[in-house]
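Hi U.,

Before I forget, here's the chain from the pilot set. I'm dumping it here mostly so it's searchable later in email.
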Amino acid sequence: MKGISLISGVLFTAFLIAATAIVYWTAVPVIQKMQCAATMDKMKASFVNLDKVVQTVASEGEGSKRTIDFNIDEGEIYISGDNDTIYWTYECNAEIFSPRTFQTFGNLIIGSNMDTGAYESSCQGYDSFVLENEHLKVCLKKVGSPGNKTYYNISDVLLLVYHKDIGEVLPLEYLEITLDDDQTSSTGNGYTKLVRSGQHLPYGEVTAYMESDYGITYSIKFVLESGEDFLIIRGE
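Structure:
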């Protein structure tokens, strides 16, 4: 009986240790997510408070000032004078936000994978909309406006794709946008529009609107997502 009791005790101990290990490793992602969420909530509250102070000082006119305490336990913070923006970056192994999504709280924006810029500039001698992330810089021709539609060829909208990783401009000779392989669907009246401008966006998007000579009205969306080394082109 002693031998049986000893063996049973060893098996029970082994089972207990294994079960504890399984529970521990299962709980790790949950714990990490809770810790990341707590850090995000703390920084959100700090930035909301900071924004209130900034708005108050701005409303009081020149010479007004305040001193506030702003503690950063994790992540990095930097200030952009060009954009009048304060950035806080924080890496977490748990998924708090779905990739390339964001939430807005007044002047505060919180999101994940927000490394794309979208702005107006000059490119290849044309007024252009530029989409740029870590890997690509994409130039698209600025054409007309919703209130001033212009005759153009939609296949000529994409001006340049520069791949930063290899330091080369990618060839665009084979880009052609048509409906039913009919060339008249490439031309017509319309415009291009930058959907949203700014830095640290989850993605940049330019829409080309076309009232084609083919008799069909459609739009093409050019989308560059943060972290990706390819341009998405889709029709609607």
